[in-house]
Design goal:
7 helices, Rossmann fold, 4-stranded antiparallel beta sheet, 11 strands, 5-stranded parallel beta sheet, alpha/beta, 41% helix
Length: 269
């Protein structure tokens, strides 16, 4: 089943045909897009399910001059769906309220039907899908971060640190399935992962990242080896996970996800 569903909302069958032709040429994450269609706001309301779609591409003028605004309002304010990406399309830019693109409706991209090309439409769609993918992976990362930190005080130290590595690897793999990543974990200078009897060969991975924290008076060194440079918010996730694990043992009441990672997540949205 495709993971990336696109909903086209337009009252023109010609536009549907043209967009379907363009989108059919896009292969994202080794998958073809699944395309669904609605021919106006009322038709859209019957089929829309919050967070089902990666992208909604909606015309502005359909049954009414502001039908597209109704579509956007339904997604953002009635359904409270902030994950789905929205592209507003119109052949009547003069009918767009001045503040529509910058206030209240959280539109992610705009296409002027009179000026666009197939190439620019493809670029816009691919950009929206990349952003959607990042949002989904970051949401999963936040959930896993909270889970592991909450469970940290109840876990054996070695088990906790090894679990942290697998959480990190899962997060990075969600974003980039081609990324190779291994780790070495040391507690008070002694390697606990991989086990001592296993020879570690990281020379084929060119990038090394070292993180140091203290847990229950134990000095922990957490080394990651990756096949490419980590991006800023990927590194922020690793830092946040490890720092929050560290603080979980000294804070009696709850924890706060590191501001650095939260800011990265807000920026990518």
């Amino acid at each position: 089943m495709p993971h990336y569903k696109v909903l086209i909302v337009d009252d023109s069958k010609t536009v549907h045909t043209e967009l379907k032709s363009i989108l059919s040429e896009i292969n994202f994450e080794s998958e073809d897009l699944e395309i669904e269609q609605a021919y106006g706001y009322e038709d859209f309301r019957k089929i829309f399910v919050p967070e089902k779609y990666a992208l909604v591409m909606t015309d502005l003028v359909m049954e009414k001059d502001d039908s597209g605004i109704e579509v956007i309002n339904h997604i953002r304010h009635i359904c409270n769906d902030s994950r789905t990406r929205i592209v507003l399309m119109t052949a009547n830019p003069e009918k767009i309220p001045p503040d529509l693109l910058t206030r209240d409706y959280d539109i992610n991209a705009y296409i002027d039907k009179n000026k666009t090309s197939d190439f620019m439409t493809k670029l816009t769609v691919i950009s929206m899908l990349k952003t959607y993918k990042d949002i989904c992976s970051l949401e999963k990362a936040m959930t896993s971060l909270e889970k592991i930190v909450k469970e940290a005080p109840e876990m054996n130290l070695s088990e906790l640190l090894i679990n942290a590595f697998f959480q990190i690897r899962t997060f990075l793999s969600l974003r980039d399935s081609k990324l190779n990543i291994t780790s070495e974990i040391f507690v008070n200078g002694e390697r606990i992962f991989p086990p001592k009897n296993i020879r570690v060969e990281n020379h084929y991975l060119p990038n090394q990242y070292n993180y140091k924290i203290n847990i229950k008076h134990n000095a922990v060194k957490f080394s990651l080896y990756t096949s490419r440079d980590l991006k800023a918010f990927e590194s922020a996730y690793v830092n946040s996970l490890l720092k929050n694990i560290e603080s979980a043992f000294v804070q009696k009441e709850g924890f706060d996800v590191e501001d650095e990672f939260v800011l990265m997540m807000l920026m990518i949205k």
